Structures are given as structure tokens and as C-alpha cells.
């Protein structure tokens, strides 16, 4: 894709997202009175543009490399057996195994210090909306997207199909981060919703709700949380850079250096 086509695709994407999510956020707001141009919106816009213009291609390259690597490991007989199943059964298998893997992968992001260094970029957002969903370190994106699509790779789904799954999960991720509260009653036990994921972004690092599409894994493993109100604050308790480039660089720096820098009043 050349630069002109990339700019056109990016422009169409942002117009589409604005047309879909801004009206939803105005009609069904989770946080009343939150403006479209709320604090730090420009940082999240930089993450959005960075994903489209720079890091999106790197993520796809990493996934392609990962796919070729698995081709040499997974037996062809196993993949043929999977391919012989009904499409609906394959779809269920991919969704269930994908949700199971990303659930535990996500919990590790909150428990393991090295993974949290990158994941807390995403959690540093103090205001949630459709744009804040894009605040994510590219290495964290590779980790997350790789785990989410691992079952599809193992089962032998073509990369074109996996690209469709990535697009769907991308829209879903934007929805559950949006400033929307649209209670769905008992269905929230089966289908993820912003009201669930907003609590995951509570100041408490271990607030729960680690699942992706469906909250079933949270229900099974005891991490399901859904009070009938919004959290008072989003974000992290740690000191962290506020700028786009600062958030990209901070996780890559030695922990001792960043700690000293954070505690240095002159820094």
C-alpha cells in the first residue's frame, strides 16, 4: 500500500469510527459531560496514527513470521482434521480457545513486572472513549494480537481469515473502551460490555475483568466484576510520562534508570 492509499484508508477509518462511536457516546454516556476533546486526546490520536502509519505494518509482519514458524511445527494431519470439521465448530473452537489464552495472557500482563512495563501504557489513560482504545505500546500489541490469534494459527486458518478476526476484535476493543454505558441485563454474563471493561481500567491494577469477547473466563476463574456504577477514576497509580514519545520510550529504558528519573524532582 502506497502512502496516498494509506492516508486515504486512515482518513476513512477515523471518519467511520467518529460516525459510529461519537453519537453512541453522546446518547448513552458512561461519564456524563465528557467532551470529545477531553484531556490528553491528542496523545491518543498520536497512538491511533502511529498504529496506522508505522506500527500496524510491524505487527502484521510479526504475525506473518509467527505463522510461518508454526507451519513447520503443527502437523499437517492435525490441521487437515480441523479443516474437515464444520465451519461453525471451527469458529466456536477458535473463540473459546482464544478467550482462554488471552485471559491468562492478560492476567500475566498485570502480574509480571516486565509485561506490565509495556501494558501500563494502555492503562495510563485517565479518560476512556473510542480514541483511548488505541493507546497501546506496539510491543504490547504484538504480544496481545499474537496470543489472541494463536488458536487460529495453530488450527491452520489462512492469514486472510485471521486478518478479518483482527479487524473484528479491533472494533470490539474500541467499543468496550468507549464512553458508553448501555446495560444489557443478564446478557452481560455472556457478552463483554463497556461497563465491564471500564472496571478493568480502575486505578486498582488487579481490578479484574481480564476476558476479551466474553466474560465467561472471568466468571469461571473468579475475576468477574461489575458494580452498577462507573469507577471514580481511570489510570495507574504509578508516575508515568504523559507525552506520546515518552510513553513509547519509557518501557524500553532500564528499570533502575526510570525509577531514579521518576523520583528526581529536577527530571
Give a structural overview.
This protein is mainly alpha-helical. It has 12 helices and no strands. It has helices at 3-27, 41-71, 76-83, 87-111, 113-123, 138-148, 150-154, 159-177, 194-200, 216-221, 244-249, 255-263. The longest helix is centred in the N-terminal third of the chain and has 31 residues, at 41-71. It is globular. It has one domain (38-253). Helix 2 (41-71) crosses helix 6 and helix 4 packs across helix 5 (113-123).
Chart the SSEs and their pairings.
Elements: H1 3-27, H2 41-71, H3 76-83, H4 87-111, H5 113-123, H6 138-148, H7 150-154, H8 159-177, H9 194-200, H10 216-221, H11 244-249, H12 255-263
Helix pairs in contact: 2-6, 4-5
Over the alpha carbons, how many angstroms does the gyration radius reach?
A: 19 Å
**Helix segment tally:** 12
Q: Could you tell me how far the N terminus lies from the C terminus, measured between alpha carbons in angstroms?
A: 41 Å
Number of domains: 1
Descriptive tags:
267 residues; mainly alpha; globular; disordered C terminus
Summarize the structure.
This protein has 267 residues and is an all-alpha fold. It has twelve helices and no strands. α2 crosses α6 and α4 crosses α5.
Amino acid at each position: 500500500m502506497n502512502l496516498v492509499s494509506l492516508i486515504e484508508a486512515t482518513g476513512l477509518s477515523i471518519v467511520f469510527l467518529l460516525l459510529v462511536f461519537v453519537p453512541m457516546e453522546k446518547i448513552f454516556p458512561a461519564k456524563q459531560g465528557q467532551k470529545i476533546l477531553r484531556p490528553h486526546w491528542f496523545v491518543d490520536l498520536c497512538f491511533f496514527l502511529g498504529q496506522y502509519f508505522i506500527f500496524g505494518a510491524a505487527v502484521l509482519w510479526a504475525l506473518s513470521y509467527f505463522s510461518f514458524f508454526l507451519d513447520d511445527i503443527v502437523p499437517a494431519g492435525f490441521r487437515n482434521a480441523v479443516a474437515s470439521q464444520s465451519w461453525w465448530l471451527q469458529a466456536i473452537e477458535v473463540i473459546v480457545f482464544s478467550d482462554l489464552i488471552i485471559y491468562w495472557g492478560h492476567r500475566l500482563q498485570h502480574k509480571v513486572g516486565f509485561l506490565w512495563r509495556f501494558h501500563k501504557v494502555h492503562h495510563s489513560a485517565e479518560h476512556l472513549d473510542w480514541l483511548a482504545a488505541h493507546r497501546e505500546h506496539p510491543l504490547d500489541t504484538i504480544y496481545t494480537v499474537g496470543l489472541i490469534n494463536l488458536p487460529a494459527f495453530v488450527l491452520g486458518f489462512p492469514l486472510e481469515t485471521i486478518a478479518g478476526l483482527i479487524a473484528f476484535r479491533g472494533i470490539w476493543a474500541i467499543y468496550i473502551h468507549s464512553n458508553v454505558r448501555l446495560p444489557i441485563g443478564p446478557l452481560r454474563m455472556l457478552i463483554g460490555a463497556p461497563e465491564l471493561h471500564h472496571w478493568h481500567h480502575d486505578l486498582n491494577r488487579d481490578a479484574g475483568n481480564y476476558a476479551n469477547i466474553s466474560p465467561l473466563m472471568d466468571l469461571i476463574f473468579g475475576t468477574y466484576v461489575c458494580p452498577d456504577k462507573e469507577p471514580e477514576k481511570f489510570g495507574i497509580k504509578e508516575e508515568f510520562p504523559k507525552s506520546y514519545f515518552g510513553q513509547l520510550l519509557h518501557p524500553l529504558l532500564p528499570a533502575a534508570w526510570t525509577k531514579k528519573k521518576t523520583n528526581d524532582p529536577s527530571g
